[in-house]
């Protein structure tokens, strides 16, 4: 929708996010890289924008829309501006704070996902427990041990490689139908 905004946030449990635009007007993103997430949190607390007296994870409330130019110029926090157009994908990495707005009507979709490299981020992510956020997403991190991830990755990769081998063998043969 024209002029709609999405407030400063990271994804639930600091998951990855993939955002695809099907059609319409551009979406404008502001992104602070994960390497500066702590600096951003300190800055927002220092300038008294972020109230942490009632919640340890108040940035998860999605209530702030900071001035990206002020963050960059006055507080030396790198902020990247990205214009997303139709048929483009934006990947948000764990702990990358992002916010932005739509430049008009558009159709987009997004999904959160995890890779093995995400597990340390998921383990250290703080959850909002103050009930200001409707139903906070909780993810039990107990099954994500190194051993379980290694077993899953090896099993999954082996089956994927086997499937890929069959595809490559099949691709050497003549096509069934010539279109």
Automatic annotation (TrEMBL):
Give the JmjC domain ranges. 1-130
- Protein name as annotated: JmjC domain-containing protein
MF terms from GO for this chain are: histone H3K36 demethylase activity; histone H3K9 demethylase activity
Q: Which domain of life is it from?
A: Eukaryota
Which source organism does the UniProt entry give? Adineta steineri
GO cellular component terms?
A: chromatin; nucleus
Q: Provide a GO biological process annotation.
A: regulation of gene expression
Which residues does UniProt call coiled coil? none
Q: Which InterPro entries match?
A: JmjC_dom
- UniProt-listed SMART domains: JmjC
Q: Which Gene3D superfamilies match?
A: Cupin
């Amino acid at each position: 929708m024209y002029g709609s905004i999405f407030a400063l946030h990271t994804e639930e449990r600091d998951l990855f996010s993939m955002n695809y635009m099907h059609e319409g007007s551009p979406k404008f993103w502001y992104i602070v890289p994960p390497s500066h997430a702590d600096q951003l949190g300190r800055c927002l607390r220092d300038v008294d924008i972020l109230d942490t007296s009632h919640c340890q994870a108040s940035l998860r409330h999605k209530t702030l829309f900071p001035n990206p130019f002020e963050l960059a110029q006055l507080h030396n926090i790198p902020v990247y501006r990205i214009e997303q157009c139709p048929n483009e994908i934006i990947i948000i990495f764990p702990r990358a704070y992002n916010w932005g707005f739509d430049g008009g009507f558009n159709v987009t979709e997004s999904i959160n996902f995890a890779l093995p490299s995400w597990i340390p981020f998921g383990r250290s992510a703080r959850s909002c427990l103050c009930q200001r956020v409707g139903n906070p997403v909780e993810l039990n991190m107990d099954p994500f041990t190194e051993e379980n991830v290694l077993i899953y990755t090896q099993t999954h990769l082996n089956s994927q490689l086997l499937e890929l081998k069959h595809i490559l063998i099949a691709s050497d043969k003549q096509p069934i139908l010539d279109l």
